Amino acid sequence: MTKKVEVKHLTKIFGHHAGRAKEMISDGKSKDEILAKTNSVVGVHDANFDVNENEIFVIMGLSGSGKSTLIRMLNRLYEPTSGEIILDGQNVTNFDKKQLREFRRKKMSMVFQNFALFPNRTILGNTSYGLEIQGVDKATRDKKAHECLELVGLHGYDDRYPSELSGGQQQRVGLARGLANDPEILLMDEAFSALDPLNRKEMQDELLELQAHLKKTIIFISHDLNEALRIGDRIMIMRDGEIVQIGGPEDILQHPKNEYVEKFIEGVDRTKILTASRVMIRPNVVNIEKDGPRTALRLMQHNEVSSVFVVDSQHHFKGLVDAKEVINLIENDKRDLTEILNTSIPTTSPDTPIKSILTDISKTSVPFSVVDNEGRLLGIILRSSVLEAISGSEVENDG
Amino acid sequence: MMANLFTLNMTQIPLADWINKFVNWLTQFVGFFNGITNFIGGIVNGFQAIFDILPIWLFIIIVLGITYWALHDSKHWGLMLFELLGLLLIANQGYWRDMTQTLTLVLTSSLIIVIIGIPLGIWMAKSNTVHLIVKPILDFMQTMPAFVYLIPAVSLFGIGMVPGVIASVIFSLPPVVRMTDLGIQQVPADLVEAADSFGSTGWQKLVKVELPIAKSTLMSGVNQGMMLALSMVVIASMIGATGLGAQVYFAVGRNNAGSGFAAGIAIVILAIILDRITQAFNKNKKSSD
């Protein structure tokens, strides 16, 4: 994995007394104090991070956390007060006007929260804007823009105006406009936040799908943890202009660095809402009263698993058998699965919130079994299905 | 001195003297002012020559044609009928040439306020310093009674149409500048950011994004400016500008209410036609955006 963007000690202070404000930060003064004394607002303080090539890097934080300021420093819509942005070994912070323009035209485009489409231009005109200002001839740029619109799933809207489109469609145009320049890096500033939940999810899916074959480096801003977990390869959590934690989605869920992150996760914690029955899947079972080890083995081979759940004729949960032991049984020419039955499988009721069993699930290597009051097996919980549920994909299964 | 200031017997600040001296000082740049006079005079004569050549019927057809074109997708027959009857009435009253002279004054002033006002408004929107300097000047220009401009206009530009145009320009420039400034500043910040983020040059941003989006605000500034210029025609006639204003002014002198109103009504007809046509351009553009 190669580093695409390196950000070093990036700081942004709004106001006329940036120098003094910076000193005050290093003295450990609070933001309020700095605001009161110097009338300067600390947007971002000493941000250090790398973004890898072809990853979706999500910067997450509440409003006022400095995430929008940070992303705007990357293409220098905001001039950094200090620090460096290195892209492919080039120091973006030192670019002169012309280099900066070239860099914005070729390397980095941006998708905006409220779409920021030009109302006076058609959809095609919006999408081809970036090429138009580069002086690309009309036929070429229109062709490219049209392709990009097709790519994001907008067919037949080329000659319409933005006001004629729905929010979701408008953001598709925003995305197409961002892609038309063929940038290496796509900055997405809360790109899906203005959309309704259904549209948002659809756009997230589509972004992932696009990313699978476009392989851009995407820096995505979000205030929505579910979104971050869903689309982010890595997530950076910010608070009050400072970076709190950087890590993969599971990393952050399982090892929140401090109370703030914990609280953040809690705030949108799906594990508290989701019950066992929501995340369980249908297991492969053998009936202990009629199936022998050979049936069990065939089932395991067929499904490419190494263990299988055992029930009786009334579907009461009995336990789990392991492939190795089943083979043993067959070799010793025995029939009864009871001997090798592993009965120490953790069980839970369908109404249990995942939160309360999350630790156990992460510790044990065998799946959890979900049983009803009469001990009948309803389903099993795999670690992967829990993670999926937490990250928001669970909604899909609900329909 | 100090003591005097606090008594009723204060020394008068010679403000009027200073201004007179300033105006006198300005008159030494006679070449410069002659240049302006010739330039504006050229525009005036150009317009007037065109209007003098056009037969009345052709003029009316052109006005109707412009209206039809500007309003192509809304109801416009009423306005076109009004234009036809109104212009015929003006011709019938014998005010045709006066009307074209007034139109010349208004069009020349409008042309100049657009040429000066829009760039100045853009500059104001882009630079805080310019904004701070120009804003009070505009306030001053707009609140100073328009009559006052006539005096230096005469000493610098003589009498006739040109000083009339100058006085009209000074009076009607502020709304154009203000509305341009406002229109550009009202372009949503994220659109400006979008234009920047794709690597637009300042000029590209202005021409492709800011001006088109500010257009309707800008056009209403032009419309206002034009109406203000029209309101100056009577005043301008005091320094020799010919046209309908002069007819009103003469009627005042002769205490002739009838011909005063007749010329006044001709001004109103012209005002309505100009107003509706410029508004139509604006609305038309907005709806297609």
From TrEMBL, chain A:
Keywords of the record, alphabetical order, are: Amino-acid transport, ATP-binding, CBS domain, Cell inner membrane, Cell membrane, Membrane, Nucleotide-binding, Transport
SMART domains the UniProt entry points to: AAA (SM00382), CBS (SM00116)
Q: What is its EC number?
A: 7.6.2.9
Reaction equation(s) it catalyzes: a quaternary ammonium(out) + ATP + H2O = a quaternary ammonium(in) + ADP + phosphate + H(+)
User: A single Pfam family, by name?
Assistant: ABC_tran
SUPFAM superfamilies for the chain: CBS-domain pair, P-loop containing nucleoside triphosphate hydrolases
Q: Which residues form the ABC transporter domain?
A: 28-265
Q: Which residues form the CBS domain?
A: 280-337, 341-399
> Which InterPro entries does this entry report, sorted A to Z?
AAA+_ATPase (IPR003593), ABC_osmolyte_uptake_ATP-bind (IPR051921), ABC_transporter-like_ATP-bd (IPR003439), ABC_transporter-like_CS (IPR017871), CBS_dom (IPR000644), CBS_dom_sf (IPR046342), Gly-betaine_transp_ATP-bd (IPR005892), P-loop_NTPase (IPR027417)
Give the multimer and partner information: The complex is probably composed of two ATP-binding proteins, two transmembrane proteins and a solute-binding protein.
Similarity remark: Belongs to the ABC transporter superfamily.
The protein's name is Quaternary amine transport ATP-binding protein
